[in-house]
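Quick sanity check, ATP synthase epsilon chain:
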Amino acid sequence: MAELSNVVTVNIVTPNGLVYDHHADLVVVKTIAGELGIMANHEPVVAPLVIGEVRVQRTDNPGHEDVIAVNGGFMEMSNNTASIVADSAERERDIDLTRAQAARDRAQRRIEEAKSKADPDELQRAQVALQRAINRIHVKTGK
């Protein structure tokens, strides 16, 4: 195994518990300012995350990348540990594509209903639900 000073430990935690815990050569997150790539010995940073995917190039499987759907939260990098605290997160292998597609369809219907009722709060909630569903679909299908 690589020296621990040359790897990043990546932890993803949600209110439901630990979702992901591995050593990586590189982790890429989507922040409000854009994508941020983190490698070993990176300066300490805290960054708010948007709905998007987290990509992890694991040290134990070169050439393979784990992809995790993350729905907001923040990432803290310190002492070669990237800790992600997310509202919710799902590994690609755990995403039910049929369920994600149904959530997308429901959100699209809710958007149309909110527009017809001129309900800005419901419209915003439905748009967030749509972003989350699309994120899960993209992570599962790789598209």
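Posting the structure with no commentary besides this: Residues 50 and 134 are 13 Å apart (CA to CA).
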